[in-house]
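queue> holo job accepted (zinc ion)
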Amino acid sequence: MQPAACRSAATGGRHSGPGNKARPGLPMFRRPPGSPGAMRQCGTSRMTPTGAIAIQVAIFPESRRFMFNVRQFTNLLPQPVRFELRRRLFAGSARECPLCGNSVKAFHGHGGGAAVLDERKVVGGMRREDDRCPVCHACDRTRMMMLFLESETELGRRPMRILHVAPDFGLYLWLRRQPAVDYVCSDIDAKRYRHIEALQIADLTKLHFDSDSFDIVICSHVLEHVPDDAAAFAEIRRVLKPGGKALLLTPYAMDGRPTDEDPSIHDPVEQDRRFGQWDHVRIYNRDDFLARMEAAGLQTRLFEPIREMPERATELALNPLEALPIGIRPAQPA
Ligand SMILES: [Zn+2]
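queue> job finished
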């Protein structure tokens, strides 16, 4: 993973009512064919401009430092201008992104960069080529979540209330095109989401949402940032309706070694070396991640698209090694 595509430790915005209308704030994105209606942004509240420069010098190789500086400049542009520039710059016919609906010359390489990610066989952290939409920055994991939502939930077939934590832009665009979705999104650091409408500021470990109030919670690449992840799992379970589902994705190690974590480390260089990114506090072992979900009272299942839906998984260029942990709040009290 690279710092430009992760999540800060939390959550926040709300779009009520039918999410399927063309939204005036999103005119530069074409609707995908057949649509019924109409990135890795890391950074936490700890990060200051001075800190950002220190981190890039300490961690990034020269090539990534250049792109970091380009991004620092383009971040000054209004969001609609940035996205329209990307859409025009990368327009082509080789790939079509199902999330934002744009056709592009190619998907881009994404992820990687820290030795520990390769060493620990971290799925969701390794570099993948031909992966990320250059317009909305949706990548393999975004497409995997979309596939789960369209194939394993009743999204679009009945009214649903969805909480999207640290909303990635591609999935945000896609969800807002779905009918009968009451869409709520949140993060602890609102300034990272200028492109997201009505984001609510919320700490994932202390959510202000009512209990039993969401059909679906989406929380991707957040929990590896959260020191007290047990509190976060408990909050996710609390806000889910009985029978509700949580899509809980995180980078996870597949080398057989246990979860490595130390939330007391506040040295970005050491965090990058040990956990694969300057603001991570752990690398999960996948089985342990599922065990922590179960300890919070969630039933678990792994959605494995390459095994369950191989043709569609290939068509969407999903990572064949990646599975999506699903937490289900039991319909009846345990
Ligand atoms: Zn896209």
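queue> The two ends are 37 Å apart (CA to CA).
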